[in-house]
Amino acid sequence: MIAAGAEHVSSRLLRRPDDKLSQGTLCVIVEGQDVGLQSEDRQGSAKRTAVQWRELYPDAEVGLVMLPYGISALCIRDQDLQIPGVLFGLDEPVPATIRQVQFCLPLRTGPGSALFVFMTEDIEHWAEYLEVLSGTMKSDSADEPHDGNAPEADGPVAGGTEKQA
After folding, report:
1. Which of 2, 45, 116, 138 gives 103 a disulfide partner, CB atoms 3.0 to 4.6 angstroms apart?
2. How far apart are CA 48 and CA 42, in angstroms?
């Protein structure tokens, strides 16, 4: 995924009630300034993306959500896939149904957007994954990251540790 242009790829683990782990994958792709209309505002861009997703995925849940970073188009859908068997040491592909949510956040810095895509085969625990993903999406910021060495403007919090973004 990184070789194909993703900026970030990570696993999200969820401990299920039976004490087993469930896994999902988060991928972030930043679409460059050549994507979208140069003069379009962020709300217009998000609305246009939602309209396109409704046309592409008529069975999906599509809408707009307001996140701390700004407005985002949202799409949740199920997909039936054929996973290459070689990943599991098998000769034949393995069928799988995954649930995917994607957020498209128009960039504040100009044309383009950040596409956050999360997917898991553990559809039974989707609500718990949405809680985890909600925390991730609420933490997105246009501010420069804190390097961890210098204290933030407000200083350290009680206990001598620095604030977390």
Report:
1. 116
2. 10
Instruction: Give me the residue label for tokens 């900026």.
Output: 7
Residue 75 tokens read as 């799409």
How far is residue 79 CA from its own chain's centroid?
17
Q: Quick one: how many helices (H) and strands (E) in the chain?
A: 2, 6
Distance between CA 73 and CA 47 in Å, rounded?
Answer: 7
Q: What is the identity of the amino acid at 39?
A: S
Coil, strand, or helix at residue 36? coil
- For residue 74, give the amino acid letter: L
* pLDDT tens digits, 100-140: 999 999 887 777 888 999 999 999 999 988 888 888 887 76
List of residues 6+ apart from 37 with CB closer than 8 A: 44, 45, 111
> Is 83 strand, coil or helix?
strand
d(CA 134, CA 103): 11
Report helix, strand or coil for 84. coil
CA 163 to chain centroid: 24
- Hunting for tokens 């407005």 — which residue is that? 71
What are the tens digits of pLDDT across the range 19-35? 899 999 999 998 875 54
Calculate the CA 86 to chain-centre distance.
27
Entry pTM: 0.75
